[in-house]
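Ticket opened by: R.M.
Priority: normal
Category: complex prediction / small molecule

The reporter submitted a protein together with heme C and asked that the result be attached to this ticket for the collaborator who will pick it up next week. Submitted input follows.
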Amino acid sequence: MHTRLVWDLPLRLFHWLFAASFTGAWLTAESDTWLSLHTFLGYLMLALIGFRLIWGVTGSHYARFSSFLYAPRAGLAYLKQTIKGTAVRHLGHNPAGSQAVFLLLGLGLLTGVSGLFVQGGEEQHGVAAGLISPVLGTIIKISHEILAQIMLLVVAGHLAGVALESWRHHENLSRAMITGKKATTPTAPAARPHYFTGLLLVLAVMLFAGWWFQSPDHASNIALIKKPLPENALWQEECGSCHQAFHPSLLPARSWQAIITQHDRHFGDDLGLDTQTARALLAYAIPNAAEHGVTEAARKINRSIPPKDAPLRITLTPYWIKKHRAIPADLWRTAPVNSRSHCAACHRDAHTPTVLKMRRYTPPCVKRALISRLHTTALRLTCGSSPCLPAATQTLRRRHTRPHASPP
Ligand code: HEC
Ligand code: HEC
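Result attached by the on-call engineer:
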């Protein structure tokens, strides 16, 4: 018996990377904490499918789609024959296996693309940001989840098929997908190894992963594919001197109205705004307020507030309270956090208003303190003058040195 190369290197790499990205994305689907990894794996899967479509035309013999095109019925017939033990052995994809290939590629494409629209709609982030509404995003999310479950079923069927076929034909098919080699006759066509293309594929995946995960907490890739929120220089100037300028999307219009109206009694400070400035600030705040739902956080904050309430603090809205319930009280009072209003201590994007996402930007030292049961000690030991905290943050202590906010 002769052994020959059947699966070329790029095809094998594709197979295992595709399997890993689907498995990883499936496992990280439920939790917000893993969303960045989940989206990375989604993009990776789409890129891999793109590569496979090209390789299906340009790859070596057994990788080409033309070498395993069968009528839909042939797959079912082959399955029946395999169960009966009468199926003939195929060197490349058999009719049932080939249908799993096409199904998985199609489902992977649909799942990935629907994922892009979930991200673009629900979160207004990623390549599809701004293309569809948040409500449509939520509807697409349902199909995204259904598609992923169907894909899982097909994967299960594929694994069962591989096991059955390996048993019937006394050959380890999964090992062949690692080594690429199968026992055959000397006359059967052999595949070319294509080491160079394989190397390029690995390099491309590594570059993409490096780019995605290059910065702490993935802030920069979010910045690169963000849809910016509207910014306003006057707002930054008037409301960004004592604390970070909170983005208007974090409170409803009626709250901003109340805050600006009561500017002479602003948490113990007098903001000293003249009528014209107050009007100009509201002209920016109201069209961008929470009810316009420009971000996921805005929609959820807005939904959580009873219509009759106009909270003066973001930190008093039910959604904010719910999301920060797990944070122990002593952590709020310890440097570098100091106050609930000091969002930037934990959310890296809090002082870059255009990329407001308020998610998972918790600096490593705060994260450690959250995990540790000795929060204050952990913070003191690991944060200190930590470079992991955003430098541009102004703490609320500034108000003692600068009682009025009227800009110089
Ligand atoms: C003179 C300093 C100063 C200026 C200027 C200032 N604030 Fe404040 N602001 C404060 C203080 C002090 C607090 C209370 C912080 C705390 O309790 O930790 C506060 C709290 C807030 C909060 C509540 C934060 C929370 O806990 O959810 C909002 C909202 C707010 N300010 C909006 C504004 C807006 C809008 C402007 C611009 C019109 C502005 N602030 C300008 C001093 C200032
Ligand atoms: C001590 C650290 C800390 C501070 C300070 C803080 N947060 Fe958070 N925040 C967190 C953590 C941790 C989570 C994640 C909770 C979770 O995953 O459920 C979170 C979650 C959120 C979310 C939900 C994100 C989502 O995925 O929907 C929003 C919105 C948010 N914070 C806004 C704010 C705002 C606005 C401020 C300032 C007024 C603030 N946070 C201050 C730690 C902090």
